[in-house]
Amino acid sequence: MKDLMLAANWKMNKTVTESISFFSELDIRLKQWELNPRLDRIDILIFPSFISIYSVNGRSEFISVGSQNIHFEEKGAFTGEISVGMIRDYAEYALIGHSERREIFGETDSDINKKIRAALSSGITPLLCIGETLEEREAGNTFKKTGDQLKEDLSGFSAEEIGKIVFAYEPVWAIGTGKTASPEQAQEVHSFITEEINKTAGKEQKRLILYGGSVKPENCKELLAKKDINGALIGGASLNVESFFAIIEKSLELV
């Protein structure tokens, strides 16, 4: 496990051609750092659209590929869904429990628990997202909401299995809004999440907990400098090579 992870969630953006072009351009830029040992301490991960996964897989030795979603069944009458078997040869990670899947598409913690199980069973690393809404934060329920999500999402998993999961704290009120949790707010929740995961797993482990929510070059370094923030899940700023590479460059200064 590396020191930091920078994960790009492209959501419903970029054609196959645009995705290939992005990977190629980013690869050229990363090769500038190829001999810099600090680059070996950062995982760079991109979640493109489903139709682009096959086309971008293997296009850069520096970039891992993930799927933005998976279904928990291996196959069946689930129109429009995608199984782990369909992506396991082309994606190393699966994004699970993103707030847009929870809030817009009605995914439950039970669904998410089963998706984590499906990913782990297939050798795919789950990247589990949790976070509170603005109403929940203003009501003082941030810890209750994130704690409840962790309890249900991780129910039934062993310490070894939990150790294979990457986590992301994404306050719903900061996603795509331009609002960002302050480094102090984010660190407070990340510290709580670390403690909750350790309690659930029954032991302390080295793990990655990313922060997501309007991360950009201007604020990434201050966020990533916090003790329990081990990377970022980046939305809008990851759609442009210049801004995503700027985040990578600034992160290199911290490892």
How would you characterize this protein structure?
This protein has one domain: TIM Barrel. The protein is built from 11 helices and 8 strands. The protein is of the alpha/beta class and 255 residues long. 39% of the residues are buried. The two termini are 14 Å apart.
Ordered list of secondary-structure elements with their pairings:
Blueprint: E1 4-9, H1 16-30, E2 42-47, H2 50-56, E3 63-67, H3 84-87, E4 93-96, H4 99-103, H5 109-121, E5 125-130, H6 134-138, H7 142-153, H8 159-162, E6 166-169, H9 183-201, E7 209-212, H10 220-224, E8 231-234, H11 241-252
Parallel strand pairs: 1-2, 1-8, 2-3, 3-4, 4-5, 5-6, 6-7, 7-8
Helix pairs in contact: 1-2, 7-9
Keywords:
eight-stranded parallel barrel, 255 residues, alpha/beta, TIM Barrel
Please give the CATH class: Alpha Beta
Which structural category fits the helices and strands? alpha/beta
Q: What oligomeric state do the depicted chains represent?
A: single chain
User: What would the principal axes of the Cα set say about the shape?
Assistant: globular
Q: In percent, how much strand structure appears in the residues?
A: 15-25%
Write down the overall mean pLDDT: 93
**Number of helical regions:** 11
